[in-house]
Design goal:
Layout: H1 5-23, H2 32-45, E1 49-54, E2 58-64, E3 76-82, H3 109-126, E4 132-138, H4 146-152, H5 155-158, E5 163-170, E6 178-180, E7 183-186, E8 188-197, E9 201-202, H6 212-229, E10 237-246, E11 252-253, E12 256-265, H7 268-289, E13 292-299, E14 304-306, H8 308-322, E15 327-329, H9 339-345, E16 348-354, H10 373-387
Parallel strand pairs: 3-4, 3-5, 5-16, 6-15
Antiparallel strand pairs: 1-2, 2-4, 6-16, 7-14, 8-12, 8-13, 9-11, 10-12
C-alpha cells in the first residue's frame, strides 16, 4: 500500500504549515506560538477533544473513530511529534528562514509537527478506524524532558493510551525510506560537571602550587580509559569531555578549572558501571594530586528501547507505505531522545524517516526535506488505521 492519495493532495498545505513553523522557531517550553498554531489547526479539523497546557505547553488532540473500540489489546493509540527548536543561528538562506536571531529548527521538529498535523486532518475527515487516535505535540525535547513533563501531567492515563509511536527524520537516509530496529535504538545521556580546586602559583614555580590544568588533563585521560578498559568491548559507551575552562594568563597556574561533558550508554548495566567508575576515577585523581574535585553527575534521558511486537507492526506499516526494499534495520545510535520516557510508560516504537542528502541534524545549514512529508504523514495514518482496524 503506497502513500495515501489524499495525503498527496494535502502536501501543499502541510508544507505551508511546516514552513510557517520553521520561520517562527521557539525553544524548550517557550513554544507558545507553535502550540497555538497546532491547537488552531486541530480545532479547524474538528478533533473531538483538544487539550492545551499539558506538560506546560504541550497540545493533545483526540480523534474518535467511526466505530467504538473493539475487544483487542489496542483501543487508543498515541502519535507524538516534538515542537521545539534549537539555539542555533540559521545559515540556509531560505526565503522562510528563521526570523528569530540565534534560533532555528535545526532538527526537523517543524517537519514532525506538520506531518502529524496532516495525519490529524486526514483522520478527522475519514475516521476509518475503531477507537481513539491521540495526537501528541510535545515541547522541550531538546534537553528539557518535555515527554516526561507530559507524562507527569497524566498524558497516558488521562487519554487511556495503550500504545505510542514516534518518528524522527534522518539526514543521509534516502527520501521515501525508513529505518528502525527492535530493542535499544538510542542512548541514555548523562551529564558530567567537574570543578577542580588546586593551588594557584607562578608558572615558573609549579612546585609551589597544585596545577588545576594538569589535574584536568589527567582526569580527561583517565576517564577515557573507562570505555577502553572497563566496558565490555561488545557493549557501547561514550564519554566526551567537551568543555575545559581554566586560567586567563600564560604565566599563572590557575587555582581552579572546570570540565563539562556527556556520557552515552545503551544498557542500564553499562550506564550504572560508567557512573560508578567516573566517581572512582575522580576520587582517585583527587587523592593522587591533592586537588579538591567536586563532581556533579546528572542522569538525563534513559535509553530509547523499541518494543518487539510494536516494532514489527511499525516495520510492516513502513513497508506498506515505502516498499519492502526501502525499510532498513539500523544499528543503535549514541544520540538521545526523550521519547524514551514514553516508551518506558507504554509499548511502542520510534522510527526514522529519510531526509535525503541534507546537512546533518543540529547543523546551521540543515533543513527538513518537504519531499518526505507524504511518507511520514501516510505512516502515521496507516499506523492508526492498522492498529485500530475497524471490523
Amino acid at each position: 500500500m503506497p502513500i495515501v492519495n489524499r495525503v498527496a493532495d494535502l502536501q501543499p498545505d502541510i508544507q505551508a504549515w511546516r514552513r510557517d513553523i520553521h520561520e517562527h522557531p521557539e525553544l524548550l517550553y517557550d513554544v507558545h506560538r507553535t502550540a497555538g498554531f497546532v491547537a488552531d489547526r486541530l480545532k479547524e479539523f474538528g478533533c473531538d477533544e483538544i487539550v492545551t497546557g499539558l506538560g506546560k505547553t504541550g497540545v493533545v488532540g483526540v480523534i474518535k473513530g467511526r466505530q467504538p473500540a473493539g475487544n483487542g489489546d489496542v483501543k487508543v493509540i498515541g502519535l507524538r511529534a516534538d515542537m521545539d527548536a534549537l539555539p542555533v543561528a540559521e545559515m540556509t538562506g531560505l526565503p522562510y528562514a528563521s526570523k528569530t536571531p540565534g534560533v532555528m529548527h535545526a532538527c526537523g521538529h517543524d517537519g514532525h509537527t506538520a506531518m502529524l498535523l496532516g495525519a490529524a486532518r486526514y483522520l478527522a475527515e475519514t475516521r476509518n478506524f475503531a477507537g481513539d487516535a491521540v495526537v501528541i505535540f510535545q515541547p522541550a525535547e531538546e534537553g528539557g524532558a518535555g515527554a516526561q513533563a507530559m507524562i507527569n501531567d497524566g498524558l497516558m492515563e488521562r487519554f487511556k493510551i495503550d500504545q505510542v509511536y514516534g518518528m524522527h527524520n534522518g539526514p543521509g537516509l534516502p527520501v521515501g525510506s525508513f529505518a528502525i530496529r527492535p530493542g535499544p535504538l538510542m542512548a541514555a545521556t548523562d551529564s558530567i560537571d567537574i570543578l577542580i580546586e588546586g593551588k594557584g602559583a607562578h608558572a615558573a614555580k609549579p612546585n609551589n602550587g597544585i596545577d588545576s590544568v594538569l589535574v584536568g588533563a589527567q582526569l580527561i585521560t583517565a576517564l577515557q580509559q573507562i570505555v577502553s578498559r572497563n566496558v565490555d568491548p561488545l557493549e557501547s559507551a561514550v564519554i566526551s569531555i567537551c568543555e575545559f575552562h581554566a586560567g586567563n594568563a600564560r604565566n599563572v597556574i590557575p587555582q581552579t578549572a572546570e570540565l563539562h561533558g556527556t556520557v552515552r550508554t545503551l544498557t542500564p548495566k553499562v550506564r550504572e558501571l560508567v557512573a560508578k567508575r567516573v566517581r572512582e576515577v575522580v576520587d582517585g585523581i583527587a587523592q593522587v594530586t591533592g586537588a579538591k574535585i567536586d563532581l556533579t553527575y546528572t542522569p538525563g534521558y534513559p535509553v530509547t528501547v523499541n518494543h518487539a511486537a510494536e516494532t514489527e507492526r511499525a516495520i510492516q506499516i513502513a513497508k506498506d507505505v515505502a516498499g519492502e526494499k526501502n525499510v532498513h534495520e539500523m544499528p543503535p545510535m549514541m544520540g538521545a531522545e526523550d521519547f524514551s520516557y514514553m516508551l518506558e510508560a507504554r509499548p511502542g516504537a520510534f522510527i526514522f524517516i529519510g531526509n535525503g542528502d541534507t546537512a546533518g541534524l543540529h547543523h546551521p545549514a540543515y533543513n527538513f526535506n518537504d519531499e518526505a512529508i507524504v511518507y511520514g504523514t501516510s505512516y502515521f495514518i496507516k499506523m492508526v488505521e492498522t492498529a485500530l482496524a475497524a471490523s
